[in-house]
Amino acid sequence: MKNILLTIEYDGTAFFGWQRQPGKRTVQGELERVLSLLCGEVVTIAGTSRTDAGVHAYRQQATLQGDFGIPTERIPIAVNNLLAGPGPYAVGDVRILDAVEMPPDFHARFSCVGKKYIYRIYNSSEPEIMPRNYFYWVKHSLDLVSMKKAAAYLTGKQDFKSFMAAGGKEMKTTVRTIYKADVVTGKMRGQGLFSYPEKEISFEIIGDGFLYKMVRIIVGTLVEVGLGKIPPDAMKEIIQSKDRRRAGHTAPPQGLYLAEVYYKKEDCFKEGERQNEN
Amino acid sequence: MKNILLTIEYDGTAFFGWQRQPGKRTVQGELERVLSLLCGEVVTIAGTSRTDAGVHAYRQQATLQGDFGIPTERIPIAVNNLLAGPGPYAVGDVRILDAVEMPPDFHARFSCVGKKYIYRIYNSSEPEIMPRNYFYWVKHSLDLVSMKKAAAYLTGKQDFKSFMAAGGKEMKTTVRTIYKADVVTGKMRGQGLFSYPEKEISFEIIGDGFLYKMVRIIVGTLVEVGLGKIPPDAMKEIIQSKDRRRAGHTAPPQGLYLAEVYYKKEDCFKEGERQNEN
After folding, report:
1. Catalytic annotation, pick one of A52, A67, A143, A243
2. What are the mean pLDDT values of chain B's consecutive 10-residue runs (278 residues total)?
3. Which chain B residue is nearest to residue A127, measuring alpha carbons?
4. Average pLDDT, whole number, for chain A?
5. What is the pTM of this model?
6. Fewest CB within a 10 Å sphere: which of A48, A120, A121, B54?
């Protein structure tokens, strides 16, 4: 049995999130169905992040144990053909980008030491219809300087209980380390799917782990800072209060993208530093 | 009763086309439902173009007769709020851009003398998942020079029977006048929803009318020219043959956008000439 690491891209719009659920179309469920067809026996996969319904991924990762009878690097093509549906130019809403063999003790979730999420806002008085499932449309003008200032309070090892939604799994601790949190305008480097250079505001966050809906609650809070409803320096007190009611609203899922998974701590730091230089 | 002209934008992905059909979600059906709610009595609308399932519109137009008890220019806001669903930042997949009162004899379809369609191709060896419902993904490299050469044969008053699909309405004549037909790379002017400056190929066509699936069959033929399967000069013979079997495949609906409607012949010419200068 090989231990295989998959890198996966998906559009979360038509999925009930990542995690397998009976009778519902989920990313894990869809991938396991097709991988099992290809393998000839039941395949289960362990994903790094259990993204919610409507949340997208540029680079989700998952491990599986199996023997496919084909070279590992051929798995993406075989699976993607089954996922895309008929026609030479059909494109499905989930796609395997890469498959590599890993040592037996490697696990996509337990070996992971950090993740990067991107949250995309379309800030314009008028909405755009076609990309509505890929951005959070914010109608009123956002003040980027205030948002950047507020975001700066997020880095470091802190208790992020104020940004945890009810309904998630029981956590031993709500302390997390954030390596990078920044707000920028224009297209994010390397993410060229849509482009509104002047109307797009992106939030990028790298951390060793995230609480239930943490990124979306942080973004909702930053939006309220950008709208002038919360002063930027209040971010510090919001964190210290450990009170969900002090933070802002939960931003909708369609703006959120899982963008990177890290297995070495130095990569989290490096990525944070390198991007801060931009 | 006022005669009102609506300008409408929509994402055709989740609609069974424009035309009202019992039990199916169509753009006309959805607009009539909401306009009737607002008006307090049954409103029917007449659209300029009956776009197929999956086809989008930047600027569809439609006329209706009714009294809404509010100023005409307030109709878009009132309707869009009902179309978008709950939440201050919700965005629906159809939206009224503009409403203006017109003389009683004006009709969105019968007064129309020309239309512009844009067809968008994403030409790259790897597909992109998120915008898959807004482009035709063509995997193999397309030769733009050949495509432009072939497209040049389309202009003028000609019989376009070779590009008419079976199953449409009976037509008195299959002769149409094409004012402009061009293939360009990069983002189309004024259509900034998505942007792949180097990988996007757009086809723009302006004509006094179009046969059933005509633009999609023309694009399918141009793609085969771009792939080297059909020589560019064969376009002339394909037109002259009046034989559907000589033309290429029907390009899929998701790349097609109704982009403009004209009510004056000189606007069709002007637009064609102006854009040819770019």
Report:
1. A52
2. 96 96 97 95 96 96 95 95 84 96 97 96 91 93 97 97 91 94 72 64 96 98 98 98 97 96 91 54
3. B91
4. 92
5. 0.91
6. B54
Q: What is the mean pLDDT of residues A120-138?
A: 91
Q: B19 is written with which tokens? A: 């035309």
- Are the Cβ atoms of B193 and A194 closer than 8 angstroms? yes
Q: Which residues pair with B164 in a beta bridge?
A: none
Q: Does position A251 have pLDDT exceeding 50, yes or no?
A: yes
DSSP per-residue letters across A205-240: EEES---TTHHHHHHHHHHHHHTTSS-TTHHHHHHH
pLDDT of residue A187: 56
Looking from the CA of A56 toward its CB, the CA atoms found within 13 Å total 26
**Rounded to 5 degrees, what are φ and ψ at A270?**
-55, -50
Q: Which residues contact A111 (CB under 8 A, 6 or more apart)?
A: A263
B26 membership: H or E segment, kind and range:
none
Residues with Cβ within 8 Å of B253's Cβ and at least 6 positions away in sequence, in order, are B12, B52, B53, B54, B55, B216
Q: What pLDDT shows up at residue B128?
A: 87
Torsion sign, CA atoms B33, B35, B40, B46: negative
> Residue B222: which of B153, B268, B127, B124 has the closest Cα?
B153
Residue numbers in B near A131 (CB within 8 A): 131, 193-194
| Confidence bin at A191 (pLDDT 50/70/90) | very low
- Cβ distance A130 to B94 less than 8 Å, yes or no, reads no
- CB contacts of A196 in chain B (<8 Å) are 192
**Reported confidence tier of residue A277, pLDDT bands at 50, 70, 90:** very low
Q: Which of B 209-268 lie inside 8 A of A, CB atoms?
A: 252
Listing DSSP states for B169-213 in one string gives ---S--EEEEEEEEEEESPPTT--SS--TTTEEEEEEEES---TT
Sign of the torsion formed by the C-alpha atoms of A264, A265, A270 and A272? positive
Structure tokens at B16: 């069974």
| Number of CB atoms found within 10 A of residue B172's CB | 5
Residue of A nearest to B87 (CA): A252
pLDDT at B276: 46
Distance, in Å, from the CA atom of A214 to the CA atom of A212, rounded to the nearest integer, reads: 5
Q: Measured between CB atoms, does A191 come within 8 Å of chain B? A: no
Whole-number Å distance between alpha carbons of B59 and B80: 15
The CA dihedral of A101, A106, A107, A111, to the nearest 10 degrees, is -130
Lowest mean pLDDT among A114-128, A188-202, B255-269: A188-202
> Hey, what are A110's tokens?
């337990």
Does B11 contact chain A (CB < 8 Å)? yes
- How far is residue A96's CA from residue A113's CA, in Å, rounded to a whole number? 22
CB pairs under 8 A between A and B: 73
Residue of chain A with shortest Cα separation from B96: A129
A271–chain B nearest CA distance, Å = 24
